[in-house]
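Hey,
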Amino acid sequence: MAHTPQSILKTVFGYDDFRPLQAEIIDSVLNKNDTLVIMPTGGGKSICYQIPALIFDGLTVVVSPLISLMKDQVDQLRELGAPAIFLNSSLTPEAYRENMTLVRENKARLLYIAPETLLKPTVLGLLASARLDCLTIDEAHCISEWGHDFRPEYRQLAEVRSRFPKAVCIALTATATPRVRRDIKASLRLSDAGEFLDSFDRKNLFLRIAPKTDPWRQAIDFLNASKDGSGIIYCATRQQVDNISDALVRNEFSARPYHAGLPETDRTRNQEWFIRNDSGIIVATVAFGMGIDKPNIRFVLHYDLPKNVETYYQQIGRAGRDGLRSECLLLFGQGDVGKIKYFINQKQGQEKKIAYDHLDAMMDLAETDDCRRVPLLRYFGEQYAGENCGMCDNCLRTDEDLVDLTIPAQKFLSCVKRTGEIFGAVHIIDVLRGSENQRIFKHNHQTLSTYGIGGEYAKKQWLSLSRLFLRKGLMVQDGEFGSLKLTDKAWAVFRNEKKVLGRLQEETRPKPAARPADIDYDPRLFEGLRRKRKELADAANVPPYAVFPDKTLMEMAAYFPQSEASLPAIHGVGEVKLQKYGAVFLEMIRDYCRENDIEEVPKPASPAAGPRPSASSKPPSQRRPVVIGEAYNDGRSIADLATEFNIKQGTVIDNLYRYVQEEGGVLRPDGMEGLISVGPDLTQRAMESFEELGADRLRPVFDALGEEVGYDDLKLIRLIYLSG
């Protein structure tokens, strides 16, 4: 075997030329210079340490986090005639001892090993007796707590380095931000001189991010347009993987599932099928893809939002390794954001802050109106040189596709200024939407001219707009406290010297019925009822909506009920509330109607309920989930609803679940936690089980938790999970 990098490249690997930076990196390692390599997925990192390993006289140890990746690499090297082995738990005791003997007798050039195995005293002793020329740390971002896949055992690799001072160290990763790169170099004591940074731009990948409106139909349309290619669909949960895979097969697509819940034999068989099939689809969780070296993957579809940019970048990087155009579509839904935030909120301190930083960067990429490559490459510390890549959805749009958002920008920025530039986006939005929470009144912000002027947009829409204004440089945000401050660019918007263009997120409402604002109500009576509600709420030390929600007051001011018989027809007036507050509000309505010569207006039947029932009949049972779901969203407790409908609390919970699953509703997430009898640790484990196993059936989660959480608690936890 020839002992020059160029000859090994040709005779062993069969390639004529090195890719960019490969030759320089190999020279650095052969000269025993410690080296940090950052290359995109599919950029050819492995050759950078494999060729030196075949030239060195001694052993090259390759630290790798995944058993499947080790086996794949070793199998490929053995096919090329290279003496490579691995040590991990998948080996039989006999094979494990045999591989240790090969190391001891210097008959192996490459040893792939997990960090946990490397740290064992027996393995460290084995390596001390061998000649170690090179220590390779693959997926080096795992060493940094700022990375998306931090592993504490990777931190201990610095100690291993100190045991073998004569071995050169090469650390490699595809997804390292500037902060992570600094952390890797500090942890492994690498100098700046040995850093090789390739561009993160994969020019052949077409990037598209679309609002998740009808994900199944969107997926089918995307797959039909890519029917001649092979691809990957990434999903958040195992249950979702199974469901989508089965549905694709029923629709005559060639598809198979892959997730950690499948038997290893099934995973291996499905992975091999995918690698060998030119038109197959693998539906998978994040568990799939590491070490997959299939060059002709033509598309990657993200059915759910990844938790961070690194994961997204790694996964789209599995497409188009042959350099040909490949399609990448991400379906972006606010419900996915809520689920990710729930799990982030279970973290503490620095870990929680890092997770939120990662999510913010992912949101920045998903919501940008600029070229997708600008925020994507910026995240990794690279500035995109071009203005229009021609390979993303935003660059193919024109200004006609964008909406003029100058007026909402002026409202938001004005509110930031009038509140003193010391509050975050959530408080600003509460002021704009006329919220009655205690913080508003504490700071007297209900007296501002911007109070209540933003009711045309939902809270989620304003949050999306606030991120847009930050990206446009109209505001800056304090990294520690989240407070917003205006920039000079904001004043150009105030003076109408600069327009703000962007895309307004479509509002998705949980209720099929008309919005309260659609009710034609008497505004003077409504305001009087609101003042009375506030007075009653303050006396009871509860928020105003706990007395009656706005929709109830609007209907009172629209239909003018003047008797105890007609008041229960008003939305949100149950038996308990009727007894508690009915007389007070009836007196106000009667006085107002008498003074203004107004008669009671019969409330029409809801068109959603079908034919109007007779006075003696109950509402159809199939509509009860909607009634209960809407009442819960309007601030009623589960206990109140059980009393009002004369049903058990468990039946209320079942109806809320049907409201979400069958009626397409979304529930407010507060109001359920206090009913759960198990502690926060078990609750968290249950949430994680729903994330992994799906929320369609309770039994798999019940079994996965060792029967420690009862079905009543699981029903509540499932509702919290589904509510994001």
